[in-house]
Amino acid sequence: MRPVTRLVDQIKEALAAFASLRTQPALIGGLALAAHHVVRATQDVDFLADAADAEKIDTLLRGLGYRCLHRSEDAANYLRGDEGMDFLFAHRPAAANLLGNAEVKETGLGRLRVVSAEGLIGFKLQAFVNNPKRTQDIEDIRSLLRVNKHSLNMMEVKSYFALFGREALLDEIIADLDR
């Protein structure tokens, strides 16, 4: 695993490059968990970005020495040596709303825009639905629900599970947490 100082430097460099974007990307994924009081190790940096900025992000990252591993309308993955950076592009109303409402938070990596805990749960659920082998995403959801249970907007959380037809999964997770 890379030292935290390298990860901080990677994020600072990216944020400086993103200063010219219409909308500043917001942290999602494993690193965003810490801003919501859940800590776990992760190797890459995940951002939610405005879909309208996708081309400019690609140009900026290539200028910083990253190579594009994959790019579609919905997502992109970049790598520079052992430094990964992934993007989900907000073009649907729900994702655009999460990006627009992302808050600046003090994190161990500096001041960063971070998607809400509810939104992070939604993205983790989407990742699991897209690839059921990603069981770490369910564990992250459990942790977010456990640690933030008194501050979460559960109607919003339930709406994400309903969107993916996984209401029974949420009921199961909540029942497990109540035991």
Verbal overview:
With 179 residues, the chain is of the alpha+beta class. The protein contains 8 helices and 7 strands. A 5-stranded mixed β-sheet has the order 1-2-5-4-3. Strands 6-7 form a two-stranded antiparallel sheet. α5 packs antiparallel against α6 and α5 runs parallel beside α7. It is globular, with a radius of gyration of 16 Å.
Sum up the overall morphology in one term. Answer: globular
Going across the biggest sheet, name each strand in turn. Answer: 1-2-5-4-3
* Poorly predicted parts: none
Q: Please compute the radius of gyration using only Cα atoms.
A: 16 Å
Q: How does the helix and strand content classify structurally?
A: alpha+beta
How much is the average pLDDT? 92
- The H/E string reads HEHEHEEEHEEHHHH
Q: What is the tally of beta strands?
A: 7
What is the CA–CA distance across the termini? 35 Å
Beta-strand percent range? 15-25%
Number of helices: 8
Notable characteristics:
179 residues; 7 strands; globular
How is this fold's topology laid out?
Layout: H1 4-18, E1 26-28, H2 30-35, E2 44-50, H3 54-63, E3 67-71, E4 75-80, E5 83-90, H4 93-100, E6 103-107, E7 110-114, H5 117-130, H6 135-147, H7 154-163, H8 167-178
Parallel strand pairs: 2-5
Antiparallel strand pairs: 1-2, 3-4, 4-5, 6-7
Helix pairs in contact: 5-6, 5-7
Brief overview:
This protein has eight helices and seven strands; from the N terminus they run αβαβαβββαββαααα. It has helices spanning 4-18, 30-35, 54-63, 93-100, 117-130, 135-147, 154-163, 167-178; strands at 26-28, 44-50, 67-71, 75-80, 83-90, 103-107, 110-114.
